[in-house]
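REQUEST FORM: STRUCTURE PREDICTION
Request ID: SP-0412
Submitted by: Lab K.M.
Chain count: 1
Length (residues): 108
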Amino acid sequence: MAPRVDENRRLYQQVADLRAKYPGSQAQWKRGALTWTGAIQPGPLCGTYTIRISWDGHRKRPVVRVLSPRLAVRGGEPLPHVFPGDELCLYYPGEWSPDMAIADAIIP
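STATUS: Completed
RESULT:
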C-alpha cells in the first residue's frame, strides 16, 4: 500500500529536520519510509553511540536501535527498556505522536 500524501510530506519534513540538525549523519526517505543513521552522545559523561531510526510515517512509533557499541548486559540480566530485537523503548504507549519531530523528541 502506497503512503498517503500527508504521510509523505511528514516523512520529507522529518528527513529535512534530521539533515539540518545532524549534518554529519545519513537521512534518507525511500519507498515511503525514513531511515536515519548517526552518532550521538546522550550526555556529557556518556560515550558516543551509532544509532539507526526507521519509521514509515504511520506505524505507532519509530524503531530505534543502537548499532554500536553493542549494549552490554550486567550480570546476565536483560537490558532494561528494550523490546525484542534490541529495539529501544523510549515512550510509554500513546506518548509518541506522528506530529512530533524525531530530531527533537527522540535524539538527545
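NOTES: The beta strands are 26-30, 33-40, 49-55, 63-68, 82-83, 87-88.
Reviewed by: T.R.
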